[in-house]
Every structure is written in C-alpha cells, then in structure tokens.
Specification:
Two copies of one chain form a homodimer.
Chain A: H1 7-21, E1 26-27, E2 31-32, E3 42-49, E4 53-61, H2 63-74, H3 83-106, E5 112-113, E6 117-120, E7 125-128, E8 135-140, E9 145-150, E10 153-154
Helix pairs in contact in A: 1-3
C-alpha cells in the first residue's frame, strides 16, 4: 500500500467518529500488520474496487471502545455487543469508507464501495488474500481502542 | 438480490471447483439466508462494487469439503486447515468472483472486485450490512459441503 493512501482513512476515521459520537480518538502511528488476527471483538470489513485500485478497509473495535462510541452515537447506554451495536459498526465502516472515497478521488483514485460485513467474536483469525501490505493504525478513545487497517493498492 | 443475479455465481462455482480440483459439486436450491452465522470453518469474502451494483460474495467450507478440494487442487494430502488451505480459499473466492464478473458483464452489470479476506474458526458470526437479501446455495462434494452466498444488488 502506498503510504499516501493511508491519510484519507485517518482523516475520515477522525471525522466520522467525532461527528457521530462527539468522541475524539487519538491516532497512533501507521504500522505494517504482520499477523492475521482480527484484533478486536467486533470488526467491520468493506471491499473497495476501482479500475486502478483494490483492497479492503477493516475496522476492529475492542468492547470498551465500541460500547463507548455507540452509546454516545445513539444516546443510550449499551453494555453488550447486541444487534444495534453490530449494525452501528456496519454504519461506521460505511461512513469512514465513504469519507475516504471522496479524498481518494481528489488524488485521482476512484473507488466504488461494496457493502460492509461485520464479524463478531474474540480471537478471530482474519487473513487478507493480497500481496499488498496491510497498514494498521490504532486509535485510542477514553475507554478503549480500535484499529483501522487497509491494504488498498494499485492493481498490478 | 435479483434472482437472475445468482446464476453467474452458480455457474462460476461449478466451473472453478471442477477445473481446479476435478471435483464436481452438486448444487442445491437457492434459499434466502436468515441467520448471521458464517456456516463453515473457513470462509472467503470478497467485495464487489460497480456504479450500478454492490455486495459481497461469501464462500464458506466445512472442514471435509475444503480439505478434499485443496488436496485435489494441490495434489497433496492436506489434513488440517493450514496456511496453504487458507490461501487456497482466497484463490478460489477470487476465481469464482472473476468468473461471475464476466457473466454479470454480459447482463450489462459491470463490477470491479475488491480483494478476498478469509476468516477461520467454527461458529463465527458474520453479519451483512445491507438491505438486500442474502441468497445462499449449498453445494455437496463427496466428503462434505460448502455454501456460496451473495447479496449483490442494484444501488438504490
């Protein structure tokens, strides 16, 4: 993945989370992911596909961060990963990808978005079938953390 | 999902599995999926995105069917879901989607493909964030079974 391709995802993540929940996560530094675990307890994945680029956006939340974010988004105190929380992960995944799509387009990279899938469970294995490196960023909220990963890359 | 959109996936599944492994699976009847489980023990997901349509292709294998197929594909006796088997699921997912893409294009529906992700583990929850119904088809091999699911639908 071109390092320049990660910035639209960082910007969109900060925008979407703060707009939806009034929570301002702190972004860590991008790293290259070497493991194939899903990181968190609930994970959204959305495919991105254009004539020139392809890949996935993955967003994986620990329990504390997603309950904090969705409770603030929906103004209700969620204590378990229930259907509403899982749907909110789909919505967040979609919105972050939509925000990044706009900025990628300004870089001349046009993508269309597939629809999100959400995986629930601890210690899941999630592998990517792609030669492109997976760039991973951790974000801290007050109560927990989540990661945003992308392997978006130019078609060879 | 338009019922007419499922046929390219059935045809591509039969083509890819028989070409790659010389195994000829028997296709069941399409049903609408109502649960949100991942069905099998190893599952490939690939996003599909075009200007007019969007969705995911999901292929989930039980242990017996994927070991049978990959053993035949790679002419080696696989007894566990190891990295080679997981990579083969990615390859199969990619090839089935590529085959369906060609036929969908002849129906006037142009998609670009994202890259596959593979999830490993029994009893995983896998939910779709999409209003389109998920059409599911079970395929039987000599030793096991797998399912192919798609929620490809027109953008509203």
């Amino acid at each position: 993945m071109d390092a320049s391709l990660i910035n639209p995802f960082i910007k969109a993540t900060l925008n979407v989370i703060s707009t939806m929940s009034n929570i301002n996560p702190k972004a860590g530094k991008p790293t290259v992911k070497t493991s194939s675990d899903a990181w968190g307890i609930v994970t959204g994945v959305i495919g991105m596909a254009g004539q020139d680029v392809m890949g996935n956006l993955v967003i994986s939340f620990d329990e504390a961060s997603i309950l904090e974010i969705v409770s603030a988004m929906l103004m209700e105190n969620f204590q378990d990963i229930n259907q509403d929380v899982v749907d909110a992960v789909g919505e967040i995944t979609n919105m972050i990808c939509g925000g990044a799509k706009k900025d990628l387009s300004e870089l001349g990279l046009h993508i269309e978005m597939a629809t999100p899938v959400m995986m629930i469970g601890k210690g899941l294995e999630l592998a990517q079938f792609s030669k492109a490196p997976v760039i991973s960023l951790q974000f801290l909220t007050q109560k927990g953390a989540f990661v945003v990963e992308s392997n978006l890359s130019r078609r060879s």
